[in-house]
């Protein structure tokens, strides 16, 4: 399926774009003194259920949201192989750079923190793709020069994937600008090439952000699978009788410095879930077989599930993502975690973990504790493994709620889906310990004022929360959050800051092009 293309002014253009496209076109005209040829767009995303399970290769359930990055673009004649890059946000100064005449790639220096580096990431992966699909044209010749004007309203640093929205919009623009009107890039190809883009600035991401940004559909959530290949399948929310599904996304405004907190937060969780997978494998006498890169190169909890079923249930084929089979297998995994790790809920010391792996303390330290810096008293293998398996199970149960359940009333749907979101938050808080007091307070206020499901979204330890709210209750939830959280926690907060902190969105369309 190709990335959707619209004409500015068309009746079928998405409502959110009807106002936004004229704004970015006007900004382009004011900056460059002429009209652009087209606008490329890609949105931010929010994850509904499936937190901290992507690095165990389990599927997640995000959706694209109604905030986005728009790039108005004019293609220059072949005498001018350069990029001029401007931004509506004046914090980001104009940049200009030449495109290599021999068709080589533009250099990216990740040690320099500049917004143009993210543009260059999108440019690079698009350039690679162009060489792949049209080698005769792009092997030894420069790309087309472009004038670009960017206007985005995805709050940066909020965990809503502003960088993925920017890079996907840029890659789409570069492909369009170089291939012209006759070529229509597929969603699959745009997702595939942008997944690795941020690696060029030193960010190791898993693919959910790009898949959600590119493949989003109105009124749909996306079932994003990582194995056997990256794939996003859209599932429609049920038709309700008297109300609509909306999501309120509220930022705690708590920023967790990833570098400083990684030894006790993210890095430590990677070590714990990897150690848990290997302790389970040793306990049940199976060998973990992992295809592709993995954290610590030791296999993960999905690999254990596949190995267990291959040995004890004579099913050598790995789980293929089927919902019914997945629910059955994940339910069994939860039982095994209780059986094998439930007697050590207080945590494992290094010595106890090494003994459970049949290795020396020195071997365990070398294999697990030297790749990333970590600090801990005990390793909470039981809690982390239980979270991963039950959270993966909730993703599949959410799909069943969306597709296989009949509801007598709108409230029945909100209770069923919202209940899974609440269980997810409880698990993130108590088992994975990635919530924070501000997140807990926002969820408490939202649930008391009309939300049916409230949870953190993203890595946690601050950042954003997401709330399932009937459209008729959105203003009630917003008002309560402003009065009972933001104005108390941040008494000097401005209206502009509040506008960025609370986003209301329905599931939105993913990447698209608008022609003038």
From TrEMBL:
Q: Which residues form the GHMP kinase C-terminal domain?
A: 414-486
A Gene Ontology biological process noted in the UniProt record is: positive regulation of transcription by galactose
Domain (GHMP kinase N-terminal): give its ranges: 131-216
Gene Ontology CC terms: cytosol
The kind of enzyme this is, by top-level EC class, is transferase
**Key words, A-Z:** ATP-binding, Carbohydrate metabolism, Galactose metabolism, Kinase, Nucleotide-binding, Transferase
Q: Which reaction does it catalyse?
A: alpha-D-galactose + ATP = alpha-D-galactose 1-phosphate + ADP + H(+)
Molecular function terms in GO for this entry?
Answer: ATP binding; galactokinase activity
Q: Which EC numbers does the record give?
A: 2.7.1.6
Please state every residue range assigned to the domain named Galactokinase N-terminal.
27-74
Q: Which Pfam families match?
A: GalKase_gal_bdg, GHMP_kinases_C, GHMP_kinases_N
What's the superkingdom here?
Answer: Eukaryota
Pathway listed for it?
A: Carbohydrate metabolism; galactose metabolism
InterPro entries from the UniProt entry? Galactokinase, Galactokinase_CS, GalKase_N, GHMP_kinase_C_dom, GHMP_kinase_C_sf, GHMP_kinase_N_dom, GHMP_knse_ATP-bd_CS, Mevalonate/galactokinase
Family statement drawn from the similarity comment of this UniProt entry: Belongs to the GHMP kinase family. GalK subfamily.
- Identification of the protein by name: Galactokinase
Q: Which organism encodes this protein?
A: Maudiozyma barnettii
């Amino acid at each position: 399926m190709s990335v959707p293309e619209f004409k500015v002014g068309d009746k079928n253009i998405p409502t959110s774009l009807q106002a936004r496209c004229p704004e970015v076109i006007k900004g382009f005209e004011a900056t460059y003194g002429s009209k652009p040829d087209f606008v490329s767009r890609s949105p931010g995303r929010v994850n509904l259920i499936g937190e901290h399970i992507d690095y165990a290769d389990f599927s997640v359930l995000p959706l694209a949201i109604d905030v986005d990055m728009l790039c108005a673009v004019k293609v220059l004649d072949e005498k001018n192989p350069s990029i001029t890059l401007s931004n509506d946000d004046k914090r980001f100064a104009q940049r200009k750079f030449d495109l290599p005449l021999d068709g080589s790639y533009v250099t990216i220096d990740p040690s320099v923190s500049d917004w143009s580096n993210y543009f260059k990431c999108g440019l690079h992966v698009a350039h690679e793709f162009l060489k792949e699909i049209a080698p005769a044209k792009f092997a030894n010749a420069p790309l087309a020069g472009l004038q670009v004007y960017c206007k985005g309203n995805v709050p940066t640093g909020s965990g809503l994937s502003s960088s993925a929205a920017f890079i996907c919009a840029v890659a789409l623009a570069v492909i369009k600008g170089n291939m012209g009107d006759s070529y229509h890039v597929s969603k699959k190809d745009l997702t595939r090439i942008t997944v690795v883009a941020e690696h060029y600035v030193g960010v190791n991401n898993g693919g959910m952000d790009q898949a959600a940004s590119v493949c989003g559909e109105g009124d749909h959530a996306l079932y994003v699978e990582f194995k056997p290949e990256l794939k996003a399948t859209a599932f429609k929310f049920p038709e309700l009788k008297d109300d609509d599904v909306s999501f309120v996304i509220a930022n705690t405004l708590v920023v967790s410095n990833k570098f400083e907190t990684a030894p006790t937060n993210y890095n430590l969780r990677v070590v714990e879930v990897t150690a848990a997978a290997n302790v389970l494998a040793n306990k049940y006498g199976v060998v973990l077989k992992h295809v592709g890169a993995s954290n610590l190169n030791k296999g993960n909890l999905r690999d254990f599930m596949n190995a267990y079923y291959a040995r004890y249930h004579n099913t050598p084929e790995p789980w293929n993502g089927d919902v019914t089979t997945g629910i059955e297998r994940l339910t069994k995994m939860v039982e095994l975690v209780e059986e094998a790790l439930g007697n050590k809920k207080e945590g494992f010391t290094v010595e106890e973990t090494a003994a459970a792996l049949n290795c020396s303390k020195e071997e365990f330290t070398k294999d697990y504790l030297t790749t990333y810096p970590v600090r801990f008293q005990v390793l909470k293998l039981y809690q982390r493994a239980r979270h991963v398996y039950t959270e993966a199970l909730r993703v599949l149960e959410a799909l069943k709620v969306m597709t296989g359940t009949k509801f007598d009333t709108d409230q029945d749907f909100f209770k069923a889906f919202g209940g899974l979101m609440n269980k997810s938050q409880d698990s993130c808080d108590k088992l994975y310990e990635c919530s924070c007091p501000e997140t807990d307070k926002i969820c408490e206020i939202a649930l008391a004022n009309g939300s049916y499901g409230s949870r953190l979204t993203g890595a946690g330890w601050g950042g954003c929360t997401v709330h399932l709210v009937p459209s008729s209750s959105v203003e009630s939830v917003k008002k309560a959050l402003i009065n009972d959280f933001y104005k108390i926690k941040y008494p000097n907060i401005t209206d502009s800051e509040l506008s960025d902190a609370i986003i209301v969105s329905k599931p939105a369309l993913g990447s698209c092009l608008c022609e003038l």
